[in-house]
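B., you asked whether I could sanity-check this one before it goes into the benchmark set. Here's the sequence:
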Amino acid sequence: MRIPRTVAGRSRRAAVLATTGLTASALLLTGCGSDSGSSGSTGPDANGNVTLTVADFGQFGYKEAGLFEKYHELNPKVTVKEDVTADEKVYYPKLLQQLNSGSGLADVQGIEVGRIKEIVDTKADAFVDLGSAIDVSEWVSWKAKQATTSSGSVIGAGTDIGPMSLCYNTDLFEKAGLPTDREEVAKRVAGGWEDYLKLGEEYKKKAPAGTSFMDSASAMFNAVVSSNAKQYYDESGKPVYKESPSVQQGWNLAAEATSKKLTQGLAQFTDPWVAALRKGTVATVTCPAWMAGQISTNAGEANEGKWDITTAPGATAANWGGSFLSVPKKGKNVEEATKLVKWLTAPEQQAAVFKAIGVFPSNKGAYELPDVKNAKLPYFNDAPIGQIYAGEANSIPEAVLGPKDGVIKDTISTQINNMEQRGTSPDKAWKAVTDAIDKAIG
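And here's what the prediction gave me:
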């Protein structure tokens, strides 16, 4: 399943969305598998029939949305097969090996956002420039630039993104004397993540026994950093996480949340985290678009209607997640593969994937389509997620990415968890961070 899109510790589950004219509110947990035994590209047969292979990881939603079948109907000579690797951490080393050897590549390869900078810097020549096939102005600007080389080549067409919102348990908020209306909650955290912690201190005063304001300080840290343009690297490609204002802010806020016992100290997507959602002991979760499905699936039917979604703290939103589709030059069907990528990432198809599994489009044209614009989640009190996420997407800053963003982020998250779970002091935890990162990236 794509649901463990596991780069930087990320995981996700899919939710069926209720949109205007639809009544479905059931949740899906989709299995993962491979439609093809091998992802290697092969040329047309004697009759001109082409089988295109799409190699990706986790759950991109194309199968669930029925897009491969639809493409075959529109193009009878083209059959699309998907080769799925459940875990991106397994998928990516294999992709690098195939790029280095020049063999075994699929016609279309998925690339995770946490890897795109490394691919752009070191492997761009292995991929087709899609700049003439797609209109990059259709995408949110920062998404398109992530896959654009310094010479202007566009090596990836954006699939989804993860605009950050705030999910909160209205039942716990009410018991703690906090507002439950999503607009009122948004006002209370409008000043930024510092306001979020102030709200947490207010929650703590009347918190129901055994509950915590937030699940994880590391999730908050990720949101703080991701809502800034300057994160772990500078424009020259130099790691600057030690001096980065956003990293320092996020770290200090995580340390404050830990010291004030506002966090339950749960590493996200672990069994204890799932149990906390099911028991209803967590009041807020930092919520990229795909997280809503995680919460609804793991919290279960007993907690339906007890959650809501509002905008994230601060004036700028964060992005957590997203991928690209690229066409290797070594493929045997480059022209047909390019056409497929253009079609899969067009507004209508991105809207169909959003409707099927809840991952939010990166193509702005999809935001005005009914399946996105009118989308609501019954589980979250009919939160108008299409409008919320589109608004967040347009306020996300253009971040400077680095080749080892994922390594840095994972390492820092581990040490924040140690502060929460083991009582490690912030100074000792930060030293462990810098030692580990310096060793990992040089």
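One thing to flag: DSSP finds 17 helices and nine strands in the chain. Otherwise nothing jumped out at me.
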